[in-house]
Batch of 3 targets.
Target 1
Amino acid sequence: MRAAERLPIDFSSNKAYCYYRQNKLQEALDLLRGQEETAPVLQLESQILYRLGRMNDCMNSYEKLQKFKIDSMDLKINIIAALVAAGRASEVQTAMKAQKVDLTTRALRDTRSFELAYNSACSLIEDKKYSEAKEQLDLAKRIGKEELMVEDYGEDDIEYELAPVSAQLAYVQQLQGQSQDAMQTYVNMINKKAADLSPVADPSSLAVATTNLISLKGTKDAADSLKKLDRLFEKSTAPNHLQLVDLKLSQRQKEALYSARVLLLLHTNKTDQAHELVSGLLGMFRDSVFPVLLQAAVHVKEKKVQKAEEVLSQYAEKHPENSKGALLSLAQIAANANHFQLAADSLSKILDIQHMPATVATLVALKERLGDSNAAASVLDSAIQWWKNSMTEDNKLDLFMRVAAEFKLSHGRDEEACLLYEELVKSHGSIEALAGLVVTSARTNVEKAEQYEKKLKPLPGLKGVNVESLEKTSGARHVEGPQDMKVDVPEEVKKQKAKKRKRKPRYPKGFDPANPGPPPDPERWLPRRERSSYRPKRKDKRAQVRGAQGAVTRETAAASVSSKGSQNTSSSKTPAANTDQPKASNKSRKKKSRS
């Protein structure tokens, strides 16, 4: 009887899961290629892509999973995390409604899911709803603590497990301006780890706390911050590479850590190390904008502004879909270097912010610096047209029309300014717009100005003022001071002012005014050389001996040589004995001559 053939069993998916658990993400993804897209394979693939930071591919895998109609809370939690990491937090509510999940705080209390509340809070942080996010983080912490206490976790273990929630709560406090509370939380998490106590946070949460603490401290204690951050890195075998310690961090979190280290190196004037690290990052993150921004920052630190502008311009041309950050940085660097045309061109390429007030104001200022008021007016006209077509709640049309009218009025475009003010009066009817319309129309059409002037409400207290007679007067006379004003002063007041109070003179201690003694020298305040009684000292015309004791001057030696004829033969043969003797006084010379 023929034996039945056994089909080969494919363990590729199991092997890929083992690689995933060992953090060998690329090897795991390679094993899944070509596999049948079953629900387990797609779930594992989405998790690997999430860890690799490829959020768009991750979301594609989750969208493929929808056809399997899997009702899993873990799957819903992972979808929220992927949307937040992909920068699509605004889609979380819609995606969860499709999954029949209510993310309100009251509903989350009923689900009793710690991870769901935590991920929902993260989406609210991205949407800048900080108060709601704080409520849900507090809820997540309370639910997580109750669940872990049921499972007999100790206090230290509970604190360790809930460290991500604590770090996120501190981050919300930091965003809300409660810097001291946030800093205290970060410091507690870091110091317990540094003191080799039982760790209160997992390594990933510790890395987040360290980075956020550095951002809070800024340039203060940059060397100490650099030491704290270096604990999270280890040297790689590749040159100019630093690898993070095995941490489960998203791509954005890794970029934040590397960016913090480069900036700290620049603040501590370690430019060479920053250069080396940036060179390694350019190889590690080839298509990302953040190493290019760091490279430009290093060039600016080295005062190579033109090199920084070239680097950013090349990246923007090569990656137009991801060029917003590079173009903004290029505009800032160029504006600081007085390269106004390059700054204006860079801002003009970012189409999605052309209508924003800050962008419009910056572009108008740059065009004015270039002396091109027509281009500045065109920027304002384009912004007005965009807001006219916009259906947003926070419409800025009236703001831009008022600013544009003022700008055109100051640049001699009276008719255009008049049209803008007239449109503002018809649409909003504000008093400021009506007053501006009257002033502007007075330059172009006096009849129209008088017509709109009648709509202005009369000011209280001006009914009794005759404007025509006021215009005929020469105006108020300027008074230089109180001495120019003629005021009638009564005689009694003049006498009182004339009576001045006489104060007793104050004498030095021990001075008797009855016996003052000799008067003081009137020249006592002058220097001694300038006084009339000064007599300079007489100079000693006698020759002075300088040098060691026993030395004689050249004149004395010459005189002794010339007088050797008057001396006996024995004394002329021994001249050295005379040079060793001290110079004789006049009296001694007279005695010798007498003898």
Target 2
Amino acid sequence: MHEVRRRPAKSDVSMDTHAGELTLKPYHRHHHDHRDLQPPTSVKASDALPLPLYLTNGLFFGIFFSVAYFLLHRWREKIRNSTPLHIITFPEIAGVVCLAASFIYLLGFFGIGVVQSFISRGSQDSWDVEEDNNVMIKKNGGGCTPAESLACTLAPVSRERVVAPTIQEPFLSGDDEEVIKGVVSGTIPSYSLESKIGDCKRAAAIRREALQRMTGRSMEGLPLEGFDYESILGQCCEMPVGFVQIPVGIAGPLLLNGTEYMVPIATTEGCLVASTNRGCKAIYASGGASSMLLKDAMTRAPVVRFGTAKRAAELKFFVEDPANFDTLSVAFNRSSRFGRLQNIKCAVAGKNLYMRFSCSTGDAMGMNMVSKGVQNVLDYLQTDFPDMDIIGISGNFCSDKKPAAVNWIEGRGKSVVCEAIIKEEVVQKVLKTNIDTLVELNMLKNLAGSAMAGALGGFNAHASNIVTAVYIATGQDPAQNVESSHCITMMEAVNDGKDLHISVTMPSIEVGTVGGGTQLASQSACLNLLGVKGASKESPGSNSRLLAAIVAGSVLAGELSLMSAIAAGQLVKSHMKYNRSSKDVSKIAS
């Protein structure tokens, strides 16, 4: 094993140990230190003048308030003398410029720190973090501010190997050794590293090294560099130690409703992208597919309990009474600009009542939005039904991330039907089969076969394959693949048996173009490729509805191609060709 020469530690935080207490101390990075191999940090507001920080802040504070007083005094005199305000003298112009400059400086210096403090506070609140007296951030002179600590970089160093050989992380320094040991020993909670250190990437690196030492297993192969860990703080993932790479392929163009779309598919299954692409080709050659949105409503169903079944039934009648709908809507709709209550359906089970709220949610998938609205309605109902005991905001009558007949029948999220007529010559030349064989296979496999299996919403060949792959690529919740993959595929011969009509009906596609994973860089790029990135300002909700239609169109292409491969007897052959590694597994294992 080659010896690794240790570089002088240069990190944002140095460590002091005394009386068993760990203290995180800011480290000031001098501009003349040529040993720093990391690129220089970005220019900050505090670099505006070559003065000590407290003098720079005092100067700009003085400029801001003195100029503001000067301008207000001058404008008051103009109003008294009836002088037009738009007539500005040179001193007033200079005052406006100085006011703007000082405001920009103060906003740049203090604004980032305030935002970071809120993020840190929110992270601690969400996990009920206790104050750890063993670790504290010292605010002595020359240290990094919260805003500066996010931009600080760490020099490459080597580390001691404790349990098992580990990979040398280039962004960990020798001063992180005490923090790592604290995490391993339990004196420093792993979940609090981001809030206590102030650098999300460095926190992930420390947590990763501590994990390797505690488990004695290397995490080589799981990348850490090249990801924006600040973007997931408090919203996407807690206690990160890296990220998983999933290749993204492109199927298309998918011609849907007269528009072409290149569909991103994130998968590790060979043949999936190629097969979906072949289905897109067949649809395109036949004139394209069309889709219709049948329903758009996210649901949440709380469960409440009463002393008697009679009282539960009374609340059911009250909630379902059309005369009370407007009142309940007012309580529900005040939770969001986009959440609008559509209906409430109830089910009684003894003394328990399940109320299934349905509402539109704009371009968001909407689970949080509808939950807030439901809570408002429950608070309102509590006044008229004080004996109502709220058992849970979700009683599984929604039903989220579980196969359920209520979603299959009533729908959840976007209910979409997509269809296409595939020409006979396309079936023969592109899909390598014939119409009669496809129709018969669909009846015996997707319909009768699924019925024999007792399927619930699974009357299709592999809708979940496409749904999951598109969901991962576009930042959706992959777990909602359960109900979003509910699909029935229908095929029949039309035009005197010369053409094939194929359709997919999907009653519960749950997608959004804002919130959650959609804001991450990679997923946002895939949404942008489809033209549905972010919220639609012109027509709120149109982006998420279009995404649902694209999902259904992609499923249509995938169903058409896979069923054709099975009908032509090509399934095994194609998977052996495209879904088998050419590498020698025995050599890899050794």
Target 3
Amino acid sequence: MAASKPVEAAMAAAAAPGSVNGVGGGSGTAGPGSGAGTLPRWHVALAIGAPLLLGAGAMYLWSRRRRRREAAGRGESSGLKRNSERKTPEGRASPALGSGHPDGSGDSLEMNSLDRAQAAKNKGNKYFKAGKYEQAIQCYTEAISLCPTEKNVDLSTFYQNRAAAFEQLQKWKEVAQDCTKAVELNPKYVKALFRRAKAHEKLDNKKECLEDVTAVCILEGFQNEQSMLLADKVLKLLGKENAKEKYKNREPLMPSPQFIKSYFSSFTDDIISQPMLKGEKSDEDKDKEGEALEVKENSGYLKAKQYMEEENYDKIISECSKEIEAQGKYMAEALLLRATFYLLIGSANAAKPDLDKVISLKDANVKLRANALIKRGTMCMQQQQPMLSTQDFNMAAEIDPQNSDVYHHRGQLKILLDLVEEAVADFDACIKLRPKFALAQAQKCFALYRQAYTANNSSQVQAAMKGFEEVIKKFPRCAEGYALYAQALTDQQQFGKADEMYDKCIDLEPDNATTYVHKGLLQLQWKQDLDKGLELISKAIEIDNKCDFAYETMGTIEVQRGNMEKAIDMFNKAINLAKSEMEMAHLYSLCDAAHAQTEVAKKYGLKPPTL
């Protein structure tokens, strides 16, 4: 099991930002039942990206269990309150003219200042309801001027009502100014905060909008859908904006050796990942008897292959470039290998021309062209271009129908597109061509399990669970089978057995950091053992300090604990490791949410519940 394998994204319960086919790293696998209402809120980190509001950020994660309980088992929105558009003015009940006078006959001159202010506000409300916003503004302005300065609550209401009228006239600057006055007088005034958030959105003040809507969400207990939708929207916009700039200027980073090996293990018909033949090895190599092997030729590509076997990955791109520049015998292979490593270091723009070139080489080995199509299709899916992705996979199947990798990776694409039946058909086609390919069999089981769980079909769920047992019995060395089974067992709340499955994964792949993260999350959900969970996730970082999933998960937990500074540090480390712009945008949304919560705590003393 590994975050770098295709299943880690393709089998996610929702198409969370992260890796597909391993190039993109990211958020790990989430089971289809991650949102089961009976699960404690620890589980939200495992199923990140799967709530009602995708990408809503870490500040909202604590509430997912409650929201999911309301939405579980029905294909509709959650039980979040659907507020009105908050367009109407408001205020406490106002005294009628002459109130406070026994005979009720006093005129406006006899009224005190607050009474006259309330009367002006009431008149403004009538104008507002009649759609006469300019007259309403005049009345609210009169109310503000009449209201005693010590009457903070009333005065804040008058400012908020005037802001509502300005909103109808789309005078966003005035809306923000009046709402600011209202909030200064009444810091926990939800309507004023939300109206100011909307004004900031219109004025393109995303950071300020996020802070205001964060405060609103906390004050409303994360129960108002309108507020949550705005938070989700602005977080996504901020995430994309920040990621676009960061990704453009990022330094390429080679992932860990375990990540790379796990990625290549998801291919069985990939020529460039096959071991070198004896005749290909260079004259520096010796066989076990110490005799020099035959030197086939001096080739940059063959040197790159040698470096692959030595796990000296940093030199591969440069050696492939030498082969390409010399237009050597292995130019097509060198183009594909260089493109693959460009993808691994997160340089999709550099990879695409190489992939395009390989695909266009009609005389090249068909398996090279099919492999290039698979990788370009994967890249398109990461860039949220599913139609282009589908076209590439279909073309690969057309030119090389006996290539099991085409069906294996297309099956994962179908999972992301929620075409589970088609995914299962592709996995079957892969298995027919490669009966001993354990990874495809495990992923087929998980696809069937997800389908059964989503349909709430208990008999099919049990059949899928039995299928997992058969896979791990048939392929006891397949760590992915144990890992996916563990996630299904967690959904079924069979925590002890899930823990055993993760232990088997660790026995098979002790250097796989992602397994430790999943096992740590299991401890949090199962035993609410925070110390053990954090210990295991820290172990993951110790094993692989390039495991972005571990940093992201640690950050999410720290948010839930209220440790914003540490959470932001973890998210920033994950951002620096992100291998795609989409994944980076997702991580920025988490980081921005934590930043906003920090500012809200400073300004208003507001904090959501913590662990």
